[in-house]
Write a structure and sequence with these properties.
Length: 194
């Protein structure tokens, strides 16, 4: 069993102007494809061959296999959590309840999450996850780390490696982070909750 590319549930230009078709072509078509291919080739003939990407992320020792599997998982969650731009896009139901319980309001959550993503030094990710008690937490993860490694259930991840936004926003990471809320598919996030 090889690790597969996730299939995009939208057209390559469907996330414009927040994420351009050109960025999808590079980020999904080149970067993610390379992480998937590299993970598959590195685990071939090892004890990790045939394991799911989640199992590899949980158990692989630090090094190339873990780094590539981490980025495969990160980007698979990332690309499946978006939808075409919508005005006043906010979580509803269970996600909204959990966000309000943990952070007070959606506005307060966005502020704290954006700060985590904006202040992450270098390359990495900001994540919203559930802890073992089902409570929501925000974490900063360096490079290709995924919250799963620390026993959390990842729900929403924002990539702040420069390749995620440089073609569309150049150095303006904060502007990218402001725009990205309009394309989050909160129903996908809810489906990931335990
Ligand atoms: Mn990326």
């Amino acid at each position: 069993m090889k690790i597969d590319m996730p299939r995009l549930p939208y057209a390559e230009d469907a996330l414009e102007p927040v994420i351009s078709k050109q960025t999808i072509n590079f980020h999904y078509g080149k970067h993610l494809q390379n992480y998937v291919n590299t993970t598959n080739s590195l685990v071939e003939g090892t004890a990790l061959e045939g394991k799911s990407v989640e199992e590899i992320v949980k158990s692989a020792p630090e090094g190339p296999v873990y780094n590539n599997a981490g980025q495969t998982l990160n980007h698979s969650l990332y690309f499946l959590q978006f939808m075409p731009q919508a005005d006043n896009n906010e979580p509803k139901g269970r996600v909204a309840d959990a966000i309000n319980a943990a952070f007070g309001s959606f506005g307060e959550f966005k502020e704290r999450f954006t700060k985590a993503a904006a202040t992450l030094f270098g390359s990495g990710w900001a994540w919203l996850s559930q802890d073992r008690d089902g409570r929501l937490v925000i974490t900063q993860e360096a490079n290709g780390d995924n919250p799963l490694r620390g026993g959390l259930n990842p729900l929403l991840g924002i990539d702040v490696w420069e390749h995620a936004y440089y073609l569309d926003f150049q150095n303006r990471r904060a502007d990218h982070l402001t725009a990205i809320w309009s394309i989050i598919n909160w129903e996908v996030v809810e489906d990931r909750m335990k």
